[in-house]
Amino acid sequence: MDLELKEEHKLLSNMVRDFAEAEIAPIAAKIDEEEEFPVEIHKKLAELGLNAITIPEEYGGSGMDTVAFALAIMELARVSASIAVTQSVTNMVAEGIYRFGNEEQKRKYLPKIASGEYIAASFALTEPWAGSDAGSIRTTATKEGDYYVINGSKIFITSGAYAGVMMVAVVTDKTKGKHGISVLLVEKDTPGVIIGKEEKKMGQRGSNTVEIAFDNCKVPLENLLGNEGDGFKIMLADLDGGRIGIGALACGVMRACLEEMVKYSKGRVQFGQPIANFQAIQWMIADTATELEAAEMMVLKAAYLKDLFLQGKGGRFTKEASMAKLFATEAANRAAYRAVQVHGGYGYSREFPVERFYRDIRVTTIYEGTSEIQRIVIARHLM
Ligand code: CAA
Questions:
Q1: Which of 7, 148, 221, 267 is spaced 20 to 30 Å from 17 by Cα?
Q2: Alpha-carbon distances of 343 from 78, 118, 147, 233, 335, rounded to whole Å
Q3: What are phi and psi of 42, to 5 degrees?
Q4: pTM here?
Q5: Which residue has the higher pLDDT, 1 or 144?
Q6: Is any ligand 1 atom within 6 A of the Cβ of residue 369?
């Protein structure tokens, strides 16, 4: 067992950290405050090879592994969870196309995602009546000649207004339940794609989250990803990888919380001494550092297992991905709570970044499968 990161991983981590500190940190509070999707930053992230980290170079990707992906997301999230989630979802969609697409689809879409011609990509699964119960979606796609005609609506779609292409889960055969679900690749400018209201969110407000309606939206039959009826499994299998990304995001926010707690407690004087001298504060810092260590190990282990799985050298990593997401996101929420607590009244003020971390981290136990769903997935694998 080798717990040491490879040289290429360290180099990537350092590169992303340097970029995040130089270019993202100065605008992180502003994009939150103004609910702005930072287009220029996402173009630069694509130029750095961070839109399609695990996609082979022959399709324009960076040809790295999932450990590299997780490390990059950690570094982005340490500075801005908004930017990290956009990148995580874009990479998840690129990977869905790579794993389940045919050669033509890979050649058509992956270079555009990787290069930033498509600055983002979306994963359109959730509907107003189908959240945790993703198998109950109602958006339909009916075959008409050489086309599928899509009707229905999706909600909470990350990057929806900016995505060049999206994976859209649709019902192609109502008689077959979950086995009647398929995935279509839909380009944003396709007539009949209607980008609806943007969510006013509690946190991660520099990411874009929208409703999308499909009104007689025609897409060619060749845009079917994988086989008809395999769509539910494709979405869930792709989400296994996405959940590693959200676990990594949580680790990044947790690290930022830890750093801010240490910094503030050393500078803040009460009762004639820095509050860092008090055991109550030290315990909060120690617990956060310990949980961060555990969360990072779990996320990187899930990433490593995913790489083995993709190389045909290991079994499915679904359980480990869910465990990593569950633990990291719950622990990060505890960390953000403590970080605000250590800052006292100042932690409740927007002048200090922990206020943003507290709001940003809340959704991580909800999206890409709630903590309750992760527990169901884990328990099913154990029983
Ligand atoms: N990989 C491959 N196949 C899988 C799988 C996986 N991880 N999980 C399940 N399957 C297969 C099952 O083997 C089963 O196959 P058969 O029918 O052939 O036996 C089929 O899929 C159906 O599985 P289940 O019967 O277990 O399905 P279920 O209806 O009980 O649902 C669930 C399972 C785990 C609850 C699932 O619905 C789920 O994960 N729900 C949460 C949805 C979710 O995460 N949404 C996130 C939205 S995207 C998002 O948030 C992104 C963002 O923008 C930030």
A1: 267
A2: 18, 40, 57, 45, 12
A3: -70, -30
A4: 0.97
A5: 144
A6: yes
**Residues carrying an active site annotation:** 368
**Beta strands 193-198 and 147-158: pairing type?**
unpaired
* 340 CB burial (10 A radius; 0-12, 13-18, 19+): buried
Structural domains in the chain plus CATH codes: 7-120 (1.10.540.10), 123-229 (2.40.110.10), 232-382 (1.20.140.10)
Q: Is 232 in the pocket of ligand 1 (CB under 6 A)?
A: yes
CA of 327 to the centre of ligand 1 (A): 19
Task: Give the residue from 242, 239, 245, 243 showing the smallest Cα distance to 71.
Answer: 245
Contact 327, 295 (CB under 8 A): yes
Ligand 1 neighbourhood includes 127 CB (under 6 angstroms)? no
Q: What is the pLDDT of residues 258-311, one digit of tens each?
A: 999 999 999 999 999 999 999 999 999 999 999 999 999 999 999 999 999 999
pLDDT in tens, 12-48: 999 999 999 999 999 999 999 999 999 999 999 999 9
d(CA 344, CA 180): 53
